[in-house]
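Lab channel / #folding
Pinned by the channel admin:
"Please post every new chain as: sequence first, then the structure tokens as a reply. Keep commentary short and put observations after the output so the thread stays searchable."

First post following the new format, from NK:
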Amino acid sequence: MMKKNLESLYKPVQYLGAKRRTLDTIVSECRRLYKKESYVVDLFSGSSLVSQALYLNKIPVISNDVMKFCSDMSACLLNVEKTNDSLSLLKEAIKGVSLCQIDSDFIEPFKDYIDNEERLIRAKDLNGLKDLYSQLPVISNEAIEPSEQVKYIREHFGKEAFNSVPLITNYYSGSYFGIKQSIRLDALRCYIEQNYIVNHDSWVYTALLTALYSTLSTIVHSAGKHFAQPIGITDFDKNKITNIRLFENRSYDVDALFIGFLKDIFAKTGNLKTLQPCISTCNNVQDECFAILLEDKNISVIYADPPYTAQQYSRFYHIPEVVRYYKYPQLQQHRGHITQGLYPDGKFKSDFCSKTKAKEAFRTVFNLVKKTQCSFVLSYSESKKDATGNERMVTRNDILSIAEEFIPNYKSKQLRFDFDYKQLNSSAKVVHDKEDKEFLIIFEKR
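Reply from TO:
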């Protein structure tokens, strides 16, 4: 893949294990195995980088992910359902951003908090910010009497929050995001929905959502810019890196970022055309409905990068998913208290991340390859040490054994890359001399 094409990719969010460093090889192998007038399936699309790279190489893609926000990003960046009117509608949508507001009655209880937050950020007053956030009337603050808005939410778990009590503000302000930032995020999410109701343009809808996800990922105050857990104020040293980052993250202008991302999306997708339309789906690859969806498609290659470690990806990306559906979630509790990560109850858990279920999950994928009669390209990183807490649920040998069971006549080869991925653990659990080696395993249909 040419450097120019790599620079043309839009990186929508900070995504764990994104295949930026192996993209050239992945695309090269998929191109080699690709047959004209067929699709390449990106089975676990994540942030869509692989799908985008294939698309830029004029390969029609079926991009799939079980998380809806990932499906949105692929739909936007693969120009799915884009019409002749889409770009002009997006330009009009950009003009309306600064005018969108949520009902002033919903903002009123937070006005003093917003003013104080702005003052404390300007003064770099960590003590004052910690005190302010401890008094904030959000759903996770169990130390104070619930506000009227929190009471309303508790009576409406599972209900949509559009044009009602602001969801992001009442769940994530003062932790993952600033208070004023959260109010603007709520306003933008409601604006996006209203824009779709008026214009019925699916591509503009996914473009607006993708820009919102990019905004969330940029301003979030967390380790690695994912959403597993916010970074709290634990001391008052202004020179501590996490405190420096707190002031940086809280100082972002949400509207300016959002508009900037929309313009970037506009620039990077405006002139792209595919030979045939791409498809973006949101399915669990183990569900029968996904296999049925592929039945009438001509598929020459399936590419997969499954989440095969003990770490559930939904834990790292629950907030974009909640923002996508915009329904008040009931929060998970541990020993009678809401978790620090503010995880929703019932978040998706992948069988690929389960020691007891992972092999069967991989069998489902290999059975899909067998039924589809296509070539298969699989990304796999091997943990040299199991002490990292990021143990693989299946070994490379397990995968090769399952392949022998389902596609014994396929020609196989393995490519090895010599670089490490950032560990997902807390710093206390990081193993500094470990070597996680990345492989690309290719099963070529003879």
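NK: The radius of gyration is 23 Å.
TO: also worth noting, DSSP finds 19 helices and nine strands in the chain.
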